[in-house]
């Protein structure tokens, strides 16, 4: 080896972490740049038209009226973009891509917090790389132009700060997440369970979330909007889609697509299954405070909601995918679950964006089976832990 080669190799070895991050970041930007001009159906039918309408109505002044079905905070950001220029497709995508990186960093920090290893550089870098290069994350922001990475970033921060016991900050982040997307509500069952299990914060701290969500509409209130509009927007969204499933491997693909007759049954079923989870936690059969369990149970509640509730879309499982990636990065045993969920999400993304074919019941069987096995794994692991704990207590006595 020549002297110059040795110096280069030694430099790489000394700075391998920095070089790894730079390489992954460069690749992540390059693959997203490739999709910059792709126009999705949502861009054509909704987002581009909303941008133009907001621009025509005076940017910030347009906030006095509702444009589109996103809540006021997102509409405010779009209104600010109208002052920069008319490249609306790029503005939507740049915003989402920026939060791709925020989400990847947040997920990596969360994984390190959960792993609690002396040297967790490996956990941080693997998690960051896995999230930022996840195919569904790339397609969601760079091709679809959707905002799922934004609210998911704040869901991760909510869980991180809940886990660390910083409850005020957690509920602020929860309010911001809810201000961007109503699907944040899928994490609420876990928060209720965690509240009952830990008994360390008041349920009234959820008022912090409500206030944060409400105050996100301040720019619209100044323009004359009703103080209740942030709540009314989400109330109106609940009746937007009259289908039991929308390009998602829902449990209701087994039953039918009659929304009028099945929607109530779906809501009751999802609530009942979540209630069973709450019962098991209240009986202390699941330990929410253990790092791995914390993310497993949060994932389970989100998975239950998207699998059994009506009118679920392919993108609604987005936070679940990220949480399963975090789990996989701290314990490779969860790779089978994250692989199935992400693979099937990728299939539905391809169906919408590139018309690669629809879902069938065989896919739903595998997806639901994976959910059931995930549930079994959580219960089995906690059963073993409880048995070991009981034996230790008997030995001590």
Automatic annotation (TrEMBL):
<feature type="transmembrane region" description="Helical">
    <location>
        <begin position="294"/>
        <end position="313"/>
    </location>
</feature>
<protein>
    <recommendedName>
        <fullName>Mannosyltransferase related to Gpi18</fullName>
    </recommendedName>
</protein>
<keyword id="KW-0472">Membrane</keyword>
<feature type="transmembrane region" description="Helical">
    <location>
        <begin position="123"/>
        <end position="143"/>
    </location>
</feature>
<feature type="transmembrane region" description="Helical">
    <location>
        <begin position="334"/>
        <end position="355"/>
    </location>
</feature>
<keyword id="KW-0812">Transmembrane</keyword>
<feature type="transmembrane region" description="Helical">
    <location>
        <begin position="261"/>
        <end position="282"/>
    </location>
</feature>
<keyword id="KW-1133">Transmembrane helix</keyword>
<feature type="transmembrane region" description="Helical">
    <location>
        <begin position="361"/>
        <end position="379"/>
    </location>
</feature>
<feature type="transmembrane region" description="Helical">
    <location>
        <begin position="171"/>
        <end position="197"/>
    </location>
</feature>
<feature type="transmembrane region" description="Helical">
    <location>
        <begin position="203"/>
        <end position="222"/>
    </location>
</feature>
<feature type="transmembrane region" description="Helical">
    <location>
        <begin position="16"/>
        <end position="35"/>
    </location>
</feature>
<feature type="transmembrane region" description="Helical">
    <location>
        <begin position="90"/>
        <end position="111"/>
    </location>
</feature>
């Amino acid at each position: 080896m020549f002297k110059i080669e040795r110096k280069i190799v030694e430099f790489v070895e000394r700075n391998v972490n920095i070089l790894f991050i730079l390489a992954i970041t460069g690749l992540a930007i390059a693959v997203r740049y490739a999709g910059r001009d792709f126009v999705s159906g949502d861009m054509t039918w909704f987002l581009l038209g909303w941008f133009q309408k907001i621009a025509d109505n005076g940017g910030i002044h347009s906030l006095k009226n509702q444009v589109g079905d996103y809540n006021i905070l997102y509409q405010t950001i779009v209104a600010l973009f109208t002052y920069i220029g008319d490249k609306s497709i790029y503005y939507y995508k740049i915003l989402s891509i920026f939060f791709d990186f925020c989400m990847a960093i947040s997920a990596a920090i969360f994984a390190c917090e959960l792993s609690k290893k002396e040297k967790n550089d490996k956990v941080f870098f693997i998690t960051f790389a896995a999230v930022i290069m996840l195919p569904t994350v790339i397609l969601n922001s760079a091709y679809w132009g959707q905002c799922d990475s934004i609210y998911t970033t704040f869901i991760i921060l909510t869980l991180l700060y809940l886990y660390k016991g910083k409850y005020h900050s957690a509920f602020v982040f929860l309010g911001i997440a809810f201000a961007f997307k109503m699907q944040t509500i899928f994490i609420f069952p876990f928060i209720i369970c965690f509240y009952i299990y830990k008994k360390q914060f008041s349920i009234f701290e959820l008022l912090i979330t409500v206030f944060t969500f409400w105050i996100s509409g301040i720019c619209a209130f100044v323009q004359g909007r009703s103080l209740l509009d942030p709540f009314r927007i989400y109330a109106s969204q609940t009746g937007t889609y009259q289908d039991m499933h929308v390009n998602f491997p829902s449990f209701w693909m087994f039953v039918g697509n009659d929304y009028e007759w099945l929607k109530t049954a779906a809501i009751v079923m999802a609530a009942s299954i979540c209630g069973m989870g709450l019962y098991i936690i209240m009986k202390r059969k699941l330990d929410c405070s253990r790092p791995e369990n914390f993310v497993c149970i949060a994932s389970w509640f989100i998975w239950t909601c998207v699998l059994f509730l009506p009118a679920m879309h392919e993108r609604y499982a987005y936070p679940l995918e990220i949480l399963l990636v975090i789990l996989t990065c701290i314990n490779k045993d969860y790779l089978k679950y994250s692989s199935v969920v992400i693979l099937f999400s990728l299939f539905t993304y391809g169906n919408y964006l590139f018309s690669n074919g629809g879902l069938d019941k065989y896919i739903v069987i595998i997806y639901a089976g994976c959910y059931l096995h995930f549930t079994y794994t959580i219960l089995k692991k906690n059963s073993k832990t409880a048995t070991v704990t009981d034996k230790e207590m008997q030995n001590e006595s």
